[in-house]
Amino acid sequence: MTTAKDLLNGEIKVANLGLESFTTAFDEIGVTAVNLDWRPPAGSDTHLVDLMLEIEVNRDKIDAANKQAVDRIMKGQPVIQAVVQAKEVIPWLGKHKILHSGPPVEYEEMCGPMQGAVVGAMIYEGWAEDTASAEALIREGKVEFECNHHYLAVGPMTGMITESMPVFKVVNEAFGNEAYCTINEGIGEVMRFGANGPNVIKRLKWLEEVLAPALNQAIQKKGGINVKSIMAQALAMGDEMHQRNIAASLIFYKNIVGELQEVINGRDDAKDIVEFLVSKNDQFFLNIAMAAAKSIMDAARDIPYSTMVTAMSRNGVDFGINISSLGYRWFTAPVEMPVGLYFPGFSEEDANPDMGDSSITECIGIGGNAMGCSPAVVNFIGAGSVSKAVEYTREMGEITLAKNFNLPMPNMNFEGVPNGFDIVKIVATGIRPVINTGMAHKKAGVGQVGAGISQPPMEIFRAALKAFVEEQLR
Hints:
By secondary structure, the chain is of the alpha+beta class. 41% of the residues lie in helices and 20% in strands. It is built from 17 helices and 18 strands. It is globular, with a radius of gyration of 24 Å.
């Protein structure tokens, strides 16, 4: 029988539950100390701890609901079926109606880049000639705004969608629901970062009148393009498909090259179309990934007792989330500034707080969740090191419900990407989702000034948890 004396006379080993720095004193006297990664549940908030106890009482039905939500993600089969004008698939759209990224926001509260994009969208549609005439219509109350997510749509950064803009029509063939996203504009002076000059309008018209019809014809000849298979291949080639889409964009082109060649063969603009898809737009696949992710996550909505996050989105002012069991109810808080690397000549003083619907990609496990298998994205977003990127991916595994075996990460022993953020795990651990993002200048028209990492404010998950307990469990 071991006695207290035996323990004191033997080798002392310490397990530390406090700050990691506490182990320093033991190191100095040669005592082995192990720091345990432990946090007080729910940040020691007694009210939240009480809510956690209610959740544990109802654990069986919550787990069953989340299993159903995860199963819907796993079974999702997003397929590009067409490229059409937005008004063909979003009947709400019409004259003086604009969809934007993030939770709902009115023009007066919008950030600078989004206001600039609104003006540009109105000029593009021919509703206004310049900023003054556009803002006059807005002041007169003649322009309506809604968020993309309410109409099965998503858009990067400012997320503008108006009636004439072409959108990818992605159908989740496992469940029959659709999702839409515009065509990525490319780099430089673009509306998604708030630019609205003549070159922006000219490019948008080219997308509408030249590229979109050609892509649609090629897709029809192909009979649709499975997006999930492209994602799996791109992960193996180093994309995380939020800030790095080089491989995915090329795989998309590879899938459609024969049919597209038949469509554009002999045309004067054939070279322009191919160059835009292959060599002038490394982010082309981003918008496709967003529409695919939207179609997958929408299939996991409206499941009673599920605590899964079905959407994360930002509008440059607020960050908002939806929860499966609570439908399209938004939980919002002021959005934070991204942390990352700035392009030469810019700094944090120039940047706008985070915005865009593109964080829907993290919900299905790509983007920030898959950073660990995308070494090339690390320096671009200022993640620090490849080992730090792997750490981010591991950490996302602590606050998600499953690993998606359909999207394996080769350099991480072919583990599936962690997907299905769980508000219970987020609140209990204090770990927030990590989102890879671009950074826009706070003034309209300047454009992108860097790239980095952003995180949702913790209070939106706490608010969602409280609402979940009150509305689903009581």
